[in-house]
Amino acid sequence: MSFVASASGVIHASRTDCFSRLRDFSTWRDWMPPSFRPRTGPSRPLQIGDRLELIIVAKPGGLPIFARVRVVRVEQDREITWRGGIPELLVGEHAFLFEDAEGQPGATLVRSEETWSGALTSVGFAKNMISASASRIGREQIEALTGAVESEKGTRERPLAGAAPVR
Q1: pTM score of the predicted model
Q2: What is the tens place of the pLDDT at every residue in 3-15?
Q3: Which of 16, 95, 99, 112 is the most buried (most CB within 10 A)?
Q4: Between vectors from CA 160 to CA 159 and to CA 161, what angle results, nearest 5°?
Q5: How far apart are the first and last CA of the chain?
Q6: Candidate CATH numbers 3.30.420.340, 3.30.530.20, 3.30.479.30, 3.40.50.720; the one for domain 3-153
Q7: Cα 153 from Cα 136, distance rounded (Å)
Q8: Per residue in 97-111, is it b (16+ CB within 10 Å) or e — as a string?
Q9: Nearest one of 125, 120, 144 to 35, comparing CA atoms
């Protein structure tokens, strides 16, 4: 049994700008949220096969979790996906998808979709905790990406989460 935790938001910048900022691992320390901190990775844009080490805080005030993931898909201006976990027990595949925001020229809809599989996804309390944490962290990542891209482009007109609600 598997499930998907998701979030989305609109960034007032081109798909290329949004995609490029997320792909540039070397800048993550400057803008990723406290719930998702880079530890090690490439000093260049992400490529398929890259291994990343991350520190994830699943709930505010919680203990940090050390995670190793591998980049499994990079499709220019459309998708960046990484995967990690313990096979058979719990594996997460986190995709960031970029598309033109409908009715908003020059804006990008960014979706965070994290598919979870493994034995723990069928345990009610574990599934609920993972789903809530993954959705919250996905929202925080999109909000942080919004701030990084819009500040760089000078398009920031609203508070961090303001341009379009991040779901």
Answers
A1: 0.89
A2: 999 999 999 999 9
A3: 112
A4: 100
A5: 24
A6: 3.30.530.20
A7: 26
A8: bbeebeeeeebbbbb
A9: 144
14 CB contacts (<8 Å, ≥6 apart)?
106, 108
Q: What is the per-residue pLDDT across 139-151, written as a single tens digit (0 to 9) for each?
A: 999 999 999 998 8
Spatial CB neighbours of 111, under 8 Å, sequence gap ≥ 6 = 6, 7, 8, 95, 96, 97, 99
Reported as a single tens digit per residue, the pLDDT across 27-83 is 999 999 999 999 999 999 999 999 999 999 988 888 999 999 999 999 999 999 999
User: Which candidate, 5, 16, 55, 51, places its Cα nearest to that of 33?
Assistant: 55
* CA–CA gap between residue 48 and residue 163 (Å, rounded): 31
Residue type, 71: V
